[in-house]
User: Which sequence fits this backbone?
């Protein structure tokens, strides 16, 4: 059971990444690929600050601010220089690779003898690191979800959501869509960098390749969460689904590793989980729509009814 609890603890940390990806991909409808560079930025900056003796909480906050700057840069490249969304994210991600190397001074930065948030609280509270990680992760996720729920209910937050739905209509209503995109991407990448700052303190090191595949992890968490909370109409429940999706994803990976799957096959397992979640989501939506139609009319849709009638005329079996 300990490996499941560790998977849940890691899932709560990675949920911050998933929430950030949700803002860019779902709310803004912006294919931002700078995620892989931003999460490493948060981890590398926090690690460097911790080795210099900085307060762990201060290191986390500064990592969030650095992520916001990186996200704003992506938004600037797209809105002001008219570079396509995908290319804007790639350019930022590419630039951040060099920036992260300069920050850490090497490809790997260890925190073995450094005072981190987890080591400090573990010693002060005399509590198991896994349980402490679960408590911290839960509290941080609840705080971030509450802040996002409040923010996207404000006029600015509603403008950002409206920009992702219909940008032309927003401009017709006098909304500065360039600014809403920049703010939305800044918030998105700030949360992603925040996740990186927690990850490096949890695992005790920062690596230049930390962000490889992180965008898939974020999307997988979103897809799994949407599959479970497919009928959620409340924004807070949608955010909850993303956090739950991230936890489930990490638990699945933890189970796979527990049964000695080679680490080089983890990416294949990741792809399988995403494909399975996409299939289940699509099938569940299709089945739910069919049940809704049957419940409202008491009969199958017209096109399916005609198809069944044609099969019966030919002497076929409609149950196939």
Assistant:
């Amino acid at each position: 059971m300990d490996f499941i609890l560790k998977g849940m603890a890691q899932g709560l940390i990675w949920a911050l990444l998933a929430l950030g990806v949700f803002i860019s991909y779902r709310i803004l409808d912006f294919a931002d690929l700078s995620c892989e560079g931003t999460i490493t930025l948060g981890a590398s900056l926090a690690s460097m600050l911790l080795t210099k003796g900085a307060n762990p909480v201060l290191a986390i906050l500064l990592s969030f601010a650095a992520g916001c700057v990186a996200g704003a840069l992506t938004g600037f490249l797209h809105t002001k220089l008219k570079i396509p969304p995908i290319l804007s994210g790639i350019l930022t991600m590419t630039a951040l690779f060099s920036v992260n190397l300069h920050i850490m001074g090497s490809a790997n930065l260890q925190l073995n003898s450094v005072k981190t948030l987890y080591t400090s609280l573990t010693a002060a509270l005399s509590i198991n690191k896994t349980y402490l990680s679960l408590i911290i992760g839960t509290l941080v996720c609840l705080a971030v979800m509450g802040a996002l729920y409040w923010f996207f209910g404000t006029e600015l937050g509603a403008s950002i959501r409206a920009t992702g739905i219909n940008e032309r209509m927003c401009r017709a209503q006098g909304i500065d869509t360039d600014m809403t995109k920049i703010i939305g991407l800044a918030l998105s990448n700030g949360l992603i960098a925040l996740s990186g700052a927690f990850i490096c303190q949890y695992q005790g090191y920062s690596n230049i390749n930390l962000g490889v595949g992180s965008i898939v992890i974020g999307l997988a968490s979103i897809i799994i969460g949407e599959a479970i909370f497919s009928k959620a109409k409340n924004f807070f429940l949608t955010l909850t689904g993303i956090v739950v999706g991230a936890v489930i994803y990490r638990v699945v990976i933890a189970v796979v590793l527990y049964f000695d799957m080679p680490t080089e096959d983890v990416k294949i397992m990741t792809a399988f989980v995403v494909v399975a979640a996409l299939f289940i989501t699509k099938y569940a939506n299709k089945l739910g729509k069919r049940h809704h139609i049957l419940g409202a009319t008491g009969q199958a849709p017209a096109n399916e009814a005609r198809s069944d009638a044609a099969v019966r005329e030919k002497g076929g079996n409609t149950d196939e």
Remarks:
- The first strand starts at residue 108 and ends at 110.
